[in-house]
Amino acid sequence: MDIGLYFGSFNPIHVGHLIIANTMLENTEIEEVWFVVSPQNPLKKRSNLEHEFDRFDLVQAAIHDNYHFKATDVEFHMPKPSYTVDTLAYLTDKLPQHKFKLIIGEDNLASFPKWKNFNVILENHGLLVYPRPQSNPSGLKDHPNVKIVDAPLLDISATFIRKQIKMGKSVKYLIPDSVNEMIERKKLYL
Ligand SMILES: Nc1ncnc2c1ncn2[C@@H]1O[C@H](COP(=O)(O)OP(=O)(O)OP(=O)(O)O)[C@@H](O)[C@H]1O
Ligand SMILES: O=C(O)c1ccc[n+]([C@@H]2O[C@H](COP(=O)([O-])O)[C@@H](O)[C@H]2O)c1
Q1: CATH of domain 2-155
Q2: Which long-range contacts (CB under 8 A, 24 or more apart) does 123-126 make?
Q3: Domain extent listing, the chain
Q4: Is 11 in the pocket of ligand 2 (CB under 6 A)?
Q5: Which residues does UniProt assign to the signal peptide (predicted)?
């Protein structure tokens, strides 16, 4: 089966992530999207990063009603920080029946040449890219293994959501209700 692996910090998951996953499902050859929660992005500082178990629970709460979406904690058992090429090698070895493609936002396409062994990812898997406002242009946009979907820009970020919560403001509609309830119950992002 063709599977879209959607790697992310998901700190927290928001409606932008869900729209991106569904858009890829509807407009590419993938049949499922697997959300891979990364304990630690190698290029990001740890500030305001909630525990990976909590972020994973929030992802599960967000996707529970969509049988095309799955969440995986595979990177929790791997060395940190979380290098995507290593996770892809592990998953390809364990599940050779599947073909994995990467789902990323356009901001990550711009920084993609800084990723570990990015050429291996590009040649062996390929990228499905969702456009993002204020992203730097990338020389990779015309690569044959890079597909940029034509879809509405979403100016939503986890950074904005974390700031709103910290200021005591509601983030209703920016995140699913199930995620909002869990954040409140666990007192996250305060
Ligand atoms: N609004 C968006 N438009 C396009 N891509 C997005 C958007 N939000 C997130 N992504 C992509 O989804 C993946 C996971 O993103 P991530 O969990 O870091 O969310 P984020 O909103 O970018 O978080 P933060 O604000 O904390 O950096 C990345 O590939 C990112 O580029
Ligand atoms: O493998 C790398 O070198 C690498 C460099 C930067 C980011 N990544 C991964 O890209 C994913 C998206 O990161 P983020 O924090 O933008 O959600 C996340 O799973 C990171 O581990 C991976």
Answers
A1: 3.40.50.620
A2: 124/88, 124/92, 125/88, 125/100, 125/101, 126/101, 126/102
A3: 2-155
A4: no
A5: none
